[in-house]
């Protein structure tokens, strides 16, 4: 299957287990692998036949507005659902990186969803 990748898109979302941690937005990095058949897009050289990665990026930048999550696992699942519903991805892999442990480069979760 063909894939579009958006790697380490920096977003600001309210996420954390404690209320203090969720009080202000945190920097997260989101990586997506979006599975889509490029055959029609290639044949027609037409953006309408693929997934517009610019539109996806803009949607993700605004996705956290008004939202508060406790877990980055839930953020990843909500992003995956949005990709399947709004952008009709056949399948998507979402990785969310959080910078919460000073001794670690980052903590991340990764999940894969597809239409069954």
What does this protein structure show overall?
It is a single chain. By secondary structure, this protein is α+β, with helices and mostly antiparallel strands. The chain has a single domain (3-114), classed as 2-Layer Sandwich (GTP Cyclohydrolase I, domain 2). The protein is built from 4 helices and 5 strands. Strands 3-1-2-4-5 form a 5-stranded mixed β-sheet. It is elongated, with a radius of gyration of 15 Å.
Keywords:
GTP Cyclohydrolase I, domain 2, 5-stranded mixed beta sheet, 4 helices, 116 residues, alpha+beta
| CATH topology tier name | GTP Cyclohydrolase I, domain 2
Overall average residue pLDDT: 95
- Give Rg in angstroms: 15 Å
CATH homolog superfamily: GTP cyclohydrolase I, C-terminal domain/NADPH-dependent 7-cyano-7-deazaguanine reductase, N-terminal domain
Order of helices and strands: EHEHHEHEE
The neighbouring-strand order within the major sheet is 3-1-2-4-5
Residues in β-strands, percent: 35-45%
The N- to C-terminal Cα distance equals 15 Å
Number of helices: 4
- Could you list the spans in which at least 5 consecutive residues all have pLDDT below 50? none
Strand tally is 5
What summary fits the major beta sheet?
5 strands, mixed
Choose one word for the global shape: elongated
Strands, helices and their partners?
Blueprint: E1 3-15, H1 19-22, E2 26-35, H2 39-44, H3 53-63, E3 68-69, H4 72-86, E4 91-98, E5 107-114
Parallel strand pairs: 1-3
Antiparallel strand pairs: 1-2, 2-4, 4-5
């Amino acid at each position: 299957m063909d894939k579009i990748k958006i790697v380490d898109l920096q977003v600001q979302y309210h996420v954390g287990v404690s209320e203090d941690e969720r009080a202000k937005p945190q920097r997260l990095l989101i990586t997506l692998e979006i599975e889509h058949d490029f055959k029609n897009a290639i044949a027609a050289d037409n953006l309408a036949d693929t997934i517009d990665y610019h539109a996806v990026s803009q949607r993700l930048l605004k996705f956290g507005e008004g939202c508060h999550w406790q877990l980055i696992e839930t953020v990843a699942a909500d992003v995956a659902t949005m990709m399947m519903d709004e952008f009709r991805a056949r399948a998507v892999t979402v990785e969310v990186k959080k910078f919460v442990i000073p001794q670690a480069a980052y903590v991340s979760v990764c999940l894969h969803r597809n239409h069954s």
